[in-house]
Design brief:
With 183 residues, the protein is an alpha+beta fold. The chain contains nine helices and five strands, in the order αααββααβααββαα.
Length: 183
Amino acid sequence: MSLNAIIESVVFAADSPLSLDRICDMLPEYEREDIKVGLKELVDFYAGRGVVLEEVAGGWQFRTSPDYQQFVVRHLKAKTVKFSPSAMETLAIVAYRQPVTRTEIEYLRGVDCGGVLKTLLEKKLVRILGKKDIPGRPLIYGTTKEFLEIFGLKDLKGLPTLKEIQSLDEAPHFDQQEELPLE
């Protein structure tokens, strides 16, 4: 039996991303380094195909290639996940500032966010990390593996930096061209 075929079948059958540690636990008869090599070979094998093997949310998962998303959506007739502006603002604050309390989020947004936080908790994009060790012991929030999975991030380091976000708003700069005389 081929190790790559075994890894392929295990990852394919999983309902969520499988970490390297989990794969190694499932396959104790194989060396960790051999499994790493197998994963790399599978990534290369699936590159450019309709399905790709990606490292997301701290694990490995087969995903539809973004190049073919429009066709898959047509087939499934599924709506893409849409977030309200308030949900996106709240989610961004939690992602970039975690661990963060509701009061801190509301201070940054300038409005109540209880309902939005409740929705994000229900959708499993945000989770309660614990309680802050200050008077009142408010809950502290952070993002989940589902958040990483939905946004296709390997980890939080994959979030764009403030500089990258600001560069999206900048208009392209073109050199001033001299006026041509019209006769």
